[in-house]
Amino acid sequence: MDSAVDEATGGGGSAPVDTKKKPAAAAKGRATAGKGKAGAKADTKTKESSLLKQKSPAEFFAENKNIAGFDNPGKSLYTTMRELVENALDSAESISELPDIEITIEEITKSKFNTMIGLVDRERVDEALYDDFESDKAREKRLAKEARFQETQAKNAALGKKVKEAPTVRAKGRGEASFFRVTCKDNGRGMPHDDIPNMLGRVLSGTKYGLRQTRGKFGLGAKMALIWSKMSTGLPIDIKSAMKGQNYISFCRLDIDIHKNVPHVHLHEKKANKDHWHGAELQVVIEGNWTTHRSRILHYMRQMAVITPYAQFLFRFLSDAAEKNLTIRFARRTDVMPPVPVQTKHHPSAVDLLLIKRLISETTKQNLLQFLQHEFVNISKPHAERLIGEMGPDFSPKMAVKSLTSQQLVRIHQLFRQAKFDDPSGNCLSPAGEYNLRLGIIKELHPDMVATHASSAQVFEGHPFIVEAGISIGGKDVKHGINIFRFANRIPLLFEQGADVITRTALKRINWSSYKINQQQDKIGVFVSIVSTKIPFKGTGKEYIGDDITEISSAVKLALKQCCLQLKSKIVKKLQARERQDRKRNLNRYIPDVARAFMETLVEIADESPPKRPRYDKEDEELLEKVNSQEVTEMTFRDCLAQHVEQVDYEMALEYAMQSGVSEEPREEIYLNSLDGSYKFVDFQSPLFVFRFIP
């Protein structure tokens, strides 16, 4: 101990230290001490930075809102409206109620928004502080540029050249935020009173989880709209809800604790339900941009009306500026609804190791044989016994399923990937149906002709899928060329169209000219709907289906080709009818000249002196006598020739019909309105019609 002290003091244990003679040593000591304190602080910071931190699901999606479609204010307004509409459709369809949905987007000015939150408007004091401030020098430069442009345009006008419009000068800066109140009301199932806070205020909690066809992409729904509302306006969401037969309406006002992922309830009460209403009404105030995404929102509503013709939508946009107000009603065309999608079990070829472990932890079956037989599709008891025998001597049908080791689970997973299984059926899926797809296209586009086709259920990676396609020619509000309408699990896809399998197939893999369709001049509508228990979306926003899955690509191509073949038959018939009309028109054009020539020839013959030897038959002599007596005139020949043309045209049409094997009279489209009230009925369904028998 003494030697250590002596060494530290730089000499003998009792010798005094002369600090005046060694200033460098003292400074070095102080530097070392300072370095020690800095090092201690650095160590503390390192420890703090290395602490394990966690994020709640709500916090994750708040920081990565672009994943859920909230990239910017305009896209956020569109996504909010879309999520509310899809929730409303699911709610109504779950109780087999024809959806009746009202969507209102109300523009809120900045002053009105400030009044709502109790904030007093203030005038600007320091203009230069703001991002849109324009200095005197910048203003002079802009005005000089505008003056030069006007002078140039005046010279062009004097010389007769084309005059350009003055370019729009965008104000520098981000501009003022725009706020909107989005309201969606439906006639669906409603929500239980006590479950409302957790259903709307807790991210990744809901009733749609499980292996089934669902409209949702992330399971967020209105929760992400609430997160965006909290981020952009700080205002809560208002919910009204009532279930069928419920004598009260639940009212709840809540927001979400982002960091804890729990609901924060402001008000939760019950009110009398005097009108016996059932459904839900959600209202949220968010920042948005109507101008940039107006067309997207209206296109979404129109396409939703195409794929769900059994639903009725009322869309309203309200603003203080009367010229911006908008009301559109998408009427119901049919009351035939697709079946409700049902939850199904996993296919063995589609499971991974983690899913097998979860199924084992949740199963109520005791042994391995029962587990394989009841937790997966297409594994019968004999098949399960064969699989267990193939797994090896460590496995037996009666062994406890929850006692399986990690190595045994890996063996099961490997066998599932290598063994052969029957494909899953598509009974769990709920496609729109050819009948509804055709009705929706006719209702919204009014095309000249339309063809539809629905494929049988097919499989990719153990998941069943069905492709429905429709192609229309002509129609209103349809541009020349190919117009593509994409649907996944019966919801429209509007963004990232170029990389989608539907777009690439329609543009690159279909030879339109071989089906008598002009890809450049005709107004072509291409509609493709894909439903599955797992839609293979690409990209973080899940806005398109990849072109790298051969099964889906082939199914889309085949469905479109079937539609093209139907259209080709119709187009050929139409062209042949047009040719007959042209031929008939040309023949009728020459009838007057031919009749006049006949008449002049007969008159000359009749005026000749009688020949020594007879040159005509008795019938010819009678005809000449009628010409002389004007019983036969030029009009008589015209009528006879016109009747002959009609007869020849009819015989040619009949011959074509017999050769083609079809006999089709002109048809008139008749649409029957649905009956009011409740009736017992039986539906006989066909791809082209539904016959409803009401006894």
Automatic annotation (TrEMBL):
Biased composition (Basic and acidic residues): 40-50
GO annotation terms (biological process): DNA topological change
Protein name: DNA topoisomerase 6 subunit B
This protein's encoding gene: TOP6B
Subunit text: Homodimer. Heterotetramer of two TOP6A and two TOP6B subunits.
SUPFAM superfamilies hit by this protein: ATPase domain of HSP90 chaperone/DNA topoisomerase II/histidine kinase (SSF55874), Ribosomal protein S5 domain 2-like (SSF54211), S13-like H2TH domain (SSF46946)
Catalysed reactions listed for this entry: ATP-dependent breakage, passage and rejoining of double-stranded DNA
Record-stated family: Belongs to the TOP6B family.
